[in-house]
Design goal:
The complex is a heterotrimer of chains A (about 250), B (about 140) and C (about 120). Chain B has about 140 residues and is mostly helical. Chain B is built from four helices and two strands; from the N terminus they run αααββα. Chain B has a domain of about 35 residues. By secondary structure, chain C is an all-alpha fold. The relative contact order of chain C is 0.13. Classes of the chains: A alpha+beta (about 250), B mainly alpha (about 140), C mainly alpha (about 120). Chains A and C meet through α5 and α9 of A and α1 and α3 of C.
Chain lengths: ~250, ~140, ~120
């Protein structure tokens, strides 16, 4: 086993340069190290100016998403030993504007997320005296998978449509809309359908499927979107019938 | 992106990569996706070939014989062979993706993907056999 | 706001894709390769003409030609839009694609109607 491995890290310092460049660092090659460990080693021992986001280091916070050897990955879940031999290329998450080094701006996603109303929408809240909302295991099963999303944005980074058309609302936002649509406590399907039927909503998706492949929490956003298209089409069909309400 | 970086302490200039027009060659998955989308061209091609055949049948035996001659040329045979490959690719990708879009729930439990895909493949075999029987019987 | 037409176009795309996936390989294999190359006995002109005269067969052929054309239109429109990044021509591309599918379907309807 080699002693060290080279990390080829994208740097971008807007105060000094107009374009990103790459810098190489030698880090120890430990079998149990992930790319995040290597980045922290660089920041601690080699180059304190390197900027990057991370937090929980165990795959639940969604902060450390970056492009590792061309693939969108959580750096806390990418083992150095799992990469092919040779320098490991670490770049910021693709398709997002780069603020500095490996840090990207995610305001676009935050705006889109808010648009889809990712909360339980009810015409009237149940009074406290009536107790809690109850759900059978099957009702929970209907949306549980989509609730696993940690907003890490790897799916946006994998989606070529988002890259080509940045106004596309994107996989995670639609999957989260579905998480609430399928929740038996929610009554907001009609509102969300209105929002997501717009030009940049679900219909921009051409089912490439890369989002599901990139998702570290097995949310299957591609599935959420296709199912939503089917529901939307069925709803459209119903509005054609004279007795089908709007 | 050739303008010089304008740095202000409170909002530095962000960098945006431009997506290359060759984006679809950058990974196998992307290329596979575009090939899958291009199968639609061969779908249209065969639809028109079917239309051509119906037209020939409607115009009488001589017209139909001319149609058959055209089909027999190496160019069209090669094109049809290529089209068959793309159509098979369409069918396989279509049936494999069907379970993702069509979630069937039986008694509250979701049917496994293999069952849904399998049902599609079974329908494919049954319908193809039926068509073959009808056309080969005369 | 006008009722969006995209769900309808997507339904056409799905129906066409399903028809093409289930039925095109066998029809192409037989009609485009096996019969011309003599691998299997081809139906004679009389039999084909008799088949094409039957109203159920005409309906089947219409669906077989028309729906996949709409499948192509929808998919190809997005391929041009995304693959070649022709965003500024989006209206023109949509009109050309669905228009071509409509023309093809109309031709198919006319041809099948006039089979003697």
């Amino acid at each position: 086993m080699p002693q060290t491995v080279t990390l080829s890290v994208a740097r971008y310092r807007p105060e000094k340069e107009s374009e990103p460049s790459f810098e190489s660092y030698e880090v120890p090659f430990r079998r149990d190290w992930v790319v995040l460990d290597a980045l922290n080693y660089i920041k601690d021992r080699l180059d304190g100016s390197l900027s990057f986001r991370w937090s929980c280091r165990m795959g639940v916070c969604g902060s450390c998403g970056m492009t590792v050897n061309g693939q969108p990955r959580l750096t806390c879940a990418s083992f150095l030993s799992a990469e092919p031999p040779g320098p490991i290329r670490v770049e910021p998450l693709r398709y997002f504007p780069i603020v500095r080094d490996l840090v990207v701006d995610i305001t676009d996603f935050m705006t889109k997320l808010r648009k889809v109303k990712p909360w339980i929408v009810r015409r009237e809240e149940k009074p406290l005296a009536e107790g809690e909302y109850r759900q059978t295991p099957d009702q929970l099963d209907a949306y549980k998978q989509f609730s696993m999303c940690i907003n890490c944005l790897l799916c946006y980074s994998a989606c070529p449509i988002y890259g080509l058309e940045p106004s596309f609302i994107g996989p995670a936002a639609i999957a989260l809309a579905q998480r609430y649509n399928q929740d038996s406590r929610d009554e907001g399907s009609a509102e969300r359908l209105q929002i997501l039927s717009e030009h940049d909503g679900m219909w921009q998706c051409t089912f490439v499927g890369e989002c599901t492949k990139a998702c570290p929490k097995h949310v299957d956003p591609a599935g959420a979107i296709q199912q939503y298209k089917l529901t939307s089409a069925a709803h459209w069909f119903k509005t054609l019938l004279p007795w089908g309400g709007r | 992106m050739s303008a010089p970086a304008r740095y202000t302490p409170y909002h530095p200039r962000w960098y945006r990569h431009r997506v290359s027009v060759w984006w679809w060659l950058q990974s196998r998955s992307y290329t596979g996706f575009v090939l899958r989308e291009l199968t639609s061209v061969f779908v249209a091609f065969f639809a028109l070939e079917l239309l051509w055949q119906v037209r020939a049948v409607g115009r009488g035996p001589e017209a139909y014989a001319r149609f058959l001659d055209r089909l027999h040329t190496p160019a069209l045979l090669a094109l049809n062979g290529l089209a068959l490959l793309f159509l098979l690719f369409h069918s396989v990708t279509w049936f494999n993706l069907a379970p993702t879009a069509m979630v069937v729930r039986l008694r509250g439990k979701r049917l496994p993907d293999l069952v849904v895909a399998g049902a599609n493949y079974a329908a494919w075999v049954v319908l193809s056999a039926a068509v073959a029987l009808i056309l080969l019987r005369g | 706001m006008a009722r969006p037409i995209t769900p309808f176009l997507w339904l056409l795309f799905s129906a066409g894709g399903t028809v093409a996936a289930l039925l095109y390989p066998v029809h192409l294999f037989l009609g485009g390769l096996a019969f011309p190359l003599g691998w299997l006995p081809a139906p004679g002109y009389e039999r084909l003409h008799a088949l094409a005269g039957h109203p159920v067969a005409r309906l089947y052929l219409f669906v077989l030609i028309s729906l996949p054309l709409f499948h192509w239109a929808h998919r190809f429109r997005y391929t041009l839009y995304d693959g070649l990044q022709l965003k500024h021509l989006t209206g023109l591309i949509a009109a050309l694609c669905y228009g071509a599918a409509l023309v093809g379907s109309a031709l198919a309807a006319y041809t099948l109607w006039s089979v003697s």
